[in-house]
Structure formats: structure tokens, C-alpha cells
Design brief:
Elements (H helix, E strand, L loop, with lengths): L2 E2 L2 E2 H25 L1 H5 L2 H29 L5 H11 L1 H21 L7 H47 L1
Antiparallel strand pairs: 1-2
Helix pairs in contact: 1-3, 1-5, 1-6, 3-4, 3-5, 4-6, 5-6
Keywords: Membrane, Transmembrane, Transmembrane helix
InterPro entries: DUF2231_TM
Organism: Mycobacterium dioxanotrophicus
Length: about 160
């Protein structure tokens, strides 16, 4: 899918990823640190968001690659954006793995298992690491993308206003 309603599909899909990945990361951290959230419906919402994020990520990357290939000579910032964007699938899959671990932890808490505290601590640490790393990566990808699209335009507007 390359164009939707006359707009590059990447431009539309990327906004979903920019919202869903950090939201999923924050919800995972909440579920990992707060057993009440894990026991309620929030863990299921988190899992659904992680699945959607994981499915949309390669679609967004493919749409971005199509857009990238239209450029005859992409500048360094656009190349950086494309390279960073290609890594997002690893972060999305990591978010999905954490969401699945949270669901497993939800069921493990029902059993009287002395290792439950250890599992909870491990999942909490991994959820925090994956969540923060995913948020940072979304920021890095988005910053490079915005720089590639807008930096020349802003420079042009600034120089035009100084005349």
C-alpha cells in the first residue's frame, strides 16, 4: 500500500505508530508495576495495542521504503531516518513479547508459586527497559524524519523573513 486517498501511506501510518508504540510502552510499564492493572482489563488492551503496533510497523516501513525509493538522491538525514525506521520492527516485536509476558504473569499470579516475585521483578525490569527504549526510538526516528522533511523548509522561511 503506497498511496491512500492521494497521500503517501507512510505519512498516515507513521502517525499511528507514533501514538501506539509509546502508548503501548507506557501501558506495559503500568501493568508491570501495578498488579491491579494486570489483573484487570488493562493487560488485554495492552496486548491488543501491541499486536496492532507489531502488524502496522512493517506496513509503515514498507510504505516508507516506497517513498524513499522515489527520491533520486536522498540526503544524509533521510538516509538516517530510513535506517532508524527499519529498526522499529525489533522494538515493536519486543513490545509484543512484553505484553505476552504480562498476560502470562497475570495467570502465574493465580498460582501459589514462590518464584512469582522473581518473575514479576524480571518482567517489570524488562517492561521498563523495552518501554523506555521504544519511546526513545520512536522519538529518534520521528526527529530524523521531521528534520528530513522540514529543515530545508524552515531554513528557507527563516532566510526569507530576514530579508
Amino acid at each position: 500500500m503506497t498511496v491512500i486517498n492521494g497521500l503517501p501511506a507512510h505519512v498516515l501510518f507513521v502517525h499511528a505508530i507514533v501514538i501506539l508504540a509509546p502508548l503501548t510502552a507506557v501501558l506495559e510499564i503500568i501493568c508491570a508495576l501495578w498488579a491491579g492493572a494486570r489483573r484487570g482489563q488493562l493487560v488485554w488492551v495492552t496486548l491488543v495495542l501491541a499486536v496492532i503496533t507489531t502488524v502496522l510497523t512493517p506496513i509503515t516501513i514498507q510504505a516508507g521504503n516506497w517513498l524513499y525509493d522515489l527520491r533520486r538522491s536522498p540526503d544524509a538525514v533521510l538516509q538516517e531516518h530510513a535506517e532508524l525506521g527499519d529498526t522499529m520492527i525489533y522494538f515493536s516485536v519486543a513490545l509484543l513479547v512484553v505484553a505476552l509476558a504480562l498476560v502470562a504473569l497475570r495467570y502465574a499470579e493465580r498460582r501459589d508459586d514462590t518464584r512469582r516475585v522473581l518473575y514479576n521483578a524480571i518482567v517489570a525490569v524488562v517492561a521498563i527497559l523495552v518501554g523506555v527504549a521504544s519511546i526513545v526510538q520512536v522519538y529518534r526516528i520521528g526527529d530524523a524524519g521531521a528534520q528530513s522533511v522540514w529543515s530545508k523548509e524552515i531554513a528557507h522561511l527563516t532566510s526569507a523573513n530576514q530579508r
